Amino acid sequence: MAAETLLPPSFWFKLALESPRVDSMPGAKGGPLLNLPERSRLPDFALLAGSPSWVTVATGWNAGGLGICFEARNPVPAEGKPARSGAGRGSAPALGESQRLSIATVDLWVDTRDTRTISRASRFCHYFRAEIRSNTSGSVGVQLDQQPIPRATAEAPMGREADRLVRADRSATGWRLELFFKSAALNGFDPDTNRRLGLSYRVHEVARGDAWMGVGDDFQLPVNPGLWSTLVLVD
Questions:
Q1: Residue 234 backbone phi and psi in degrees, to 5
Q2: What is the pTM of this model?
Q3: What are the pLDDT digits (tens) for 93-139?
Q4: How many domains, in total, are found in the chain?
Q5: Fewer beta carbons within 10 Å, N or C terminal of the chain?
């Protein structure tokens, strides 16, 4: 019988992951928001925890901001009318108020100073939540908001919706969420003086639960930047 451990494997690692420069972001309106190369893909943290693998995450940056793509494979069928293949793009596309079906929720935390010695968020720490939904017509939309971090010592400025770009689509093989945060949306984002960011995420589906980058909520990761991973911006 395998020995049980009190702490998850991810607790023992402080990861520093490279994110390449991609000058083509954001893409032209009507097409993909991000066009990330293969080396933009982050390691699969589900393998570290021995959990099923179903989410791929990739990142890229340029002087204008930070891009992150989440892609889920082999979706679990949802109850209700399935969304047809399609895409929604904008800061917060209208979905209609009745009978909307949630596909997935993505929580994202970014620290533009990667301060490893703090356990409470500073004014450089940001929390964004994106929810992908389908409506009664079968189209796909996504709502992207910035939210406060509980118990923060100081709040990051609430940025404008226009500085947070988002695109989502769904097909028979899964769903894809593309996010691009302009530099104005990330307080302290300045690659000329700092190439290390703190980063963490949670991807949630009702049927498959949570996919975390890191130790998860058991260790209060959402409010503790000291537990977030490091994203190194490379040329």
A1: -120, 155
A2: 0.85
A3: 444 443 468 899 999 999 999 988 889 999 999 999 999 998 766 67
A4: 1
A5: N
